[in-house]
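does this look right to u?? manganese (III) ion version
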Amino acid sequence: MKRRNFIKSVGVAAAAAYVGPEVFAGSGSAGTTGNVVPGVPEFPALPYAYDALEPYIDARTMEIHYDKHFRGYYNKFVAAVKGTPLEKMSLNDIFSGVSSHGGAVRNNAGGFYNHSLFWTNLGKGSKGPDSELSSALTKAFGSFDKFKEAFDNAAKTRFGSGWAWLYLKPDKSLAIGSTPNQDNTLMDVSEIKGTPLLALDVWEHAYYLKYQNRRPEYIDAFWHVVNWDEVNKRYSGAMG
Ligand code: MN3
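got this back:
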């Protein structure tokens, strides 16, 4: 898939989180490029080179993370929904009833979605939150630094494997939290619920090669490679 199509398709997937089933049914490439299951998006290309986030996230980690871990979630997700009614459903609909779909769907649909979002959350060269998001962050957390501190804390204190999130609650206020394993804020099983805006993978596989057990150093490095353009876009999209 071309970079443009990847961005478009993940944009559609992101939009599907709050507007509908387009991620499966309406993806432009569905059915035309040899998808394993007709309604399921094809495996997305990484929107930058493995070494694009050096030195903050090293090329070898990116390669293994993308090509082994992420591909594994994707393949298992496809296998879990193939031939079931889920293959025609939006990810949003799968997540909102995930408690009834079993562990393979919960873990692998989550792993596919969370990483798809994470790749687009990363990138160099963006200028930071735009004025709309900046004011919302200040309103919710007191200041940008306090927002970062709260997000860092969520990422550092997630015990074991999981994700830290900035998300928009149904009442349209911003919140920070974390989920275990491959859960996310769209799932009915999650203690925190809303539209994901910024995700940080805190599984050891995301940082162990370069940072070993030093998760806080990886979290510090993450702030150098947040693609705020994407977060801005997701925020204004979710606000409608
Ligand atoms: Mn991961």
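DSSP finds ten helices and three strands in the chain. idk if thats expected tbh
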